[in-house]
Every structure is written in C-alpha cells, then in structure tokens.
Amino acid sequence: QVQLVESGGGLVQSGGSLRLSCTASGSIFSIYVMSWYRQAPGKQRELVAGFTSGGSTNYVDSVKGRFTISRDNAKNTVYLQMNSLKPEDTAVYYCKGYHSTTRSAYWGQGTQVTVSS
Questions:
Q1: Beta-strand relationship, 111-116 and 10-13
Q2: Alpha-carbon gap, residue 93 to 88, rounded angstroms
Q3: What is the C-alpha separation between 49 and 58, in angstroms, rounded?
Q4: What percent of the chain has pLDDT over 70?
Q5: Summary mean pLDDT of the chain
Q6: Sign of CA dihedral 80, 108, 57, 38
Q7: How far is residue 49's CA from residue 35's CA, in Å, rounded to a whole number?
Q8: Backbone φ/ψ region at 101: left (φ over 0), alpha (ψ -120 to 50), beta
Q9: Cα–chain-centroid distance for residue 72?
Q10: In whole angstroms, what is the distance from residue 6 CA to residue 106 CA?
Q11: Short-list 96, 93, 103, CA closest to 71
C-alpha cells in the first residue's frame, strides 16, 4: 500500500505557473502507474495527465502544450508542471497511484489550484 501527499497548489494569476508535487511513501514507488486528476466545483473528476504502463505520457486536450507530468523515482515523487494557467484550470488536483498487478488505486488528499483572471 502506498500513501500519497500532494503539495504545491495555491492562488496564481492567469498566465502564471505552478508545479505540483506528489510524494509517495509506504511502498515501492516505481511500480505504480502515476497520474494527475482534477475536480472543479460541480464537475466530475477528470484525468489531466498520466503515465501509461509503458512509461509514455498522455494529457487531456485542454492542457496539452501547457502541462507536463514527470516523475523522479529516486525521490518517490511525481510532478505536474503547469504553465500558462487559465481560470478554467481552477480545481482540486489529486494524484493517483495505480498498481497494475493488484489493480489497486490510491489517491492523495488533493491540493487546491485557483487561477484568477
């Protein structure tokens, strides 16, 4: 079992940048497929960016070219670099770790990102 803790959220003006971090503990980080989701008020949680089991990355269309997901297995951390932020990026951002063998998913507590216009 893995525990995930997000950080790096905050208030930023439109066009600004933030870098979210998600640090894992309690298990071997490298075996988990990591991704970032977000949930805006009144909306369903959506996948923003993630790694596939093969190590490639995918992004929702609305963030392509602006967001970058990366991971540092030595630091047990996955990052989400967010540039050119827009008010519609405002949401609570969650990281998720998926263990493909046990088919178990683990979530962090979320970090709030607010983009002002």
A1: parallel
A2: 13
A3: 6
A4: 100
A5: 95
A6: negative
A7: 6
A8: alpha
A9: 14
A10: 12
A11: 96
DSSP-assigned letter for residue 75: G
What pLDDT shows up at residue 114? 98
pLDDT band at 76 (very low <50, low <70, confident <90, very high): very high
Q: Give me the amino acid identity at 79.
A: Y
Q: How far apart are the C-alpha atoms of 114 and 93, rounded to whole Å?
A: 10
What type of residue sits at position 77? T
Digit-coded pLDDT (tens) for 43-57? 999 999 999 888 899
How far apart CA 103 and CA 45 sit, in angstroms, is 20
Two structure tokens written together for 16: 């600004």
User: Which two structure tokens, joined as six digits, stand for 63?
Assistant: 């963030």
**DSSP β-bridge partners for residue 1:** none
Per-residue pLDDT of 3-38, as tens digits, reads 999 999 999 999 999 999 999 998 777 789 999 999
Contact present, 41 and 109 (Cβ < 8 Å): no
The whole-angstrom separation of Cα 7 and Cα 44 is 21
Residues near 54 by Cβ (< 8 Å), separated by ≥ 6?
Answer: none
